[in-house]
Structure formats: structure tokens, C-alpha cells
């Protein structure tokens, strides 16, 4: 397999993290923001939605979208529960991660991190993202203050997906993570998983 991956992106990272946790080999093609490699991958039609990550299967089929890739890689593993309700709970967290969490936590981090986006970081927008991002992080805290993992009693794709941007929320996004001790303990548990690979 070949993964077109943006090295600094949480969406790409969570795929690399799952590959590491599963012990699966995969060729990594770095397509960093504004790089010639990214332009080449787009020109070669390797990025169906115009962005990374994209997993190219051995037979040449292309699978875009980070959480779709997680589901494909996680099939048959302990990271995707066999129980239908638990599996649906995992999917609920994946949908929420892209629909809510990423739109605040990841976006605020990107506006801080990428020079090409800093002109979009108006004080009003950054304040709004901070407030809404803290609210989204509180949703996770409410779960993780009572339980070790987001779904059930073992790590799942939900944890891998949410870890991607949550673990850099303070450094990149300026979120006050001291407010979320449950998330802090969860971040440490994910980082202690066998096979873990850092961003």
C-alpha cells in the first residue's frame, strides 16, 4: 500500500498512527502543504478530493478521507468492535470528530501553524474558535473523566481519530488543556500503546 500523507496534518497522522499500532507496512509519500510533491500528486490524480490523506491499495484503488481509511484498515482488528452497537458508537465519534471537533480544534491550530493561513486568523475568529473548541473538548472530557476510552473498555478507532488533533490542541491551538485532566490521562494512555508512533 501507499499512503499520500501530509506530515504536519492530524488527519494524515491518525492514519500513520493506526498503521503503526497495527504493525502494517505502508509506503509513505509526503505531500506537505504547498510542496511540489503535493502539486505532483494532484496532477497525477492521486488525491480524488484534492487533499491528503489518501490510501492507495495494492490493486491501485484510491481511498480518500482519514476516517474512511481508518475504517478500512481497522476492519477485522480490535480497533473496530464486532458488536453492532459498539461499532455504531465508534462511527458516531468519527462523524463528530470531522463535523464538530476538527472545525474548531484543528482549524485554530492550522491558523496558528501555517504561515499561508495566518491572514485568516482575525482576533474575532480565533476567539470564537477557542470558545467553541473548549466546548468540544469538554464533550470528550465528560466521557474520559469516567472512562479510559471513548467506546467500551479498550482503544478503538474513535480514540485514534480524536487523538490526531487533540494531542496538539494546546501547543498548536492554544487551548487550555489543564481544564481537561481526563483528556490528559487519555493522551498518556494512547501514547503508551504498543507500536505508538509520534507525529
Structure at a glance:
By secondary structure, this protein is α+β, with helices and mostly antiparallel strands. It is built from eight helices and four strands; from the N terminus they run βαβαββαααααα.
How many β-strands, per DSSP? 4
Q: What gyration radius follows from the Cα positions, in whole Å? A: 17 Å
Strand order, main sheet: write it out: 2-1-3-4
Q: Label the overall shape.
A: globular
Helix content: 40-55%
What separation lies between the terminal Cα atoms? Answer: 20 Å
Largest sheet: 4 strands, mixed
Low-pLDDT residue spans = none
Q: Quick check: average pLDDT?
A: 96
- SS field, number of helical segments: 8
What is the beta-strand fraction? Answer: 5-15%
Order of helices and strands: EHEHEEHHHHHH
* Helix-and-strand structural type: alpha+beta
SSE layout:
Elements: E1 2-5, H1 10-22, E2 27-30, H2 36-43, E3 54-56, E4 62-64, H3 66-74, H4 84-113, H5 123-144, H6 157-166, H7 169-173, H8 181-191
Parallel strand pairs: 1-2
Antiparallel strand pairs: 1-3, 3-4
Please give a structural write-up.
The protein has eight helices and four strands, in the order E-H-E-H-E-E-H-H-H-H-H-H. The protein is 54% helix and 7% strand. The model has no long low-confidence stretch (mean pLDDT 96). It is an alpha+beta fold and 199 residues long. It is globular, with a radius of gyration of 17 Å. Strand 1, helix 1 and strand 2 form a beta-alpha-beta unit. The protein has helices at 10-22, 36-43, 66-74, 84-113, 123-144, 157-166, 169-173, 181-191; strands at residues 2-5, 27-30, 54-56, 62-64.
Amino acid at each position: 500500500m501507499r499512503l499520500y500523507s501530509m506530515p504536519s496534518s492530524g488527519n494524515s497522522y491518525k492514519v500513520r498512527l493506526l498503521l503503526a499500532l497495527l504493525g502494517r507496512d505502508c509506503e509513505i509519500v509526503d505531500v506537505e502543504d504547498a510542496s511540489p510533491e503535493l502539486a505532483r500528486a494532484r496532477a497525477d490524480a492521486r488525491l480524488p478530493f484534492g487533499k491528503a490523506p489518501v490510501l492507495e491499495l495494492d490493486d491501485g484503488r484510491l481511498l480518500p478521507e482519514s476516517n474512511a481509511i481508518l475504517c478500512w484498515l481497522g476492519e477485522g482488528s480490535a480497533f473496530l468492535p464486532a458488536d453492532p452497537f459498539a461499532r455504531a458508537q465508534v462511527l458516531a465519534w468519527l462523524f463528530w470528530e470531522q463535523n464538530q471537533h476538527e472545525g474548531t480544534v484543528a482549524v485554530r491550530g492550522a491558523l496558528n501553524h501555517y504561515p499561508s493561513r495566518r491572514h485568516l486568523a482575525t482576533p474575532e475568529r480565533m476567539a470564537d474558535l477557542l470558545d467553541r473548541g473548549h466546548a468540544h473538548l469538554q464533550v470528550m472530557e465528560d466521557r474520559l473523566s469516567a472512562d479510559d476510552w471513548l467506546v467500551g473498555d479498550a482503544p478503538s478507532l474513535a480514540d485514534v481519530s480524536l487523538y490526531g488533533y487533540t494531542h496538539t490542541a494546546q501547543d498548536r491551538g492554544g487551548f487550555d488543556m489543564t481544564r481537561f485532566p481526563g483528556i490528559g490521562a487519555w493522551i498518556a494512555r494512547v501514547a503508551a500503546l504498543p507500536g505508538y508512533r509520534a507525529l
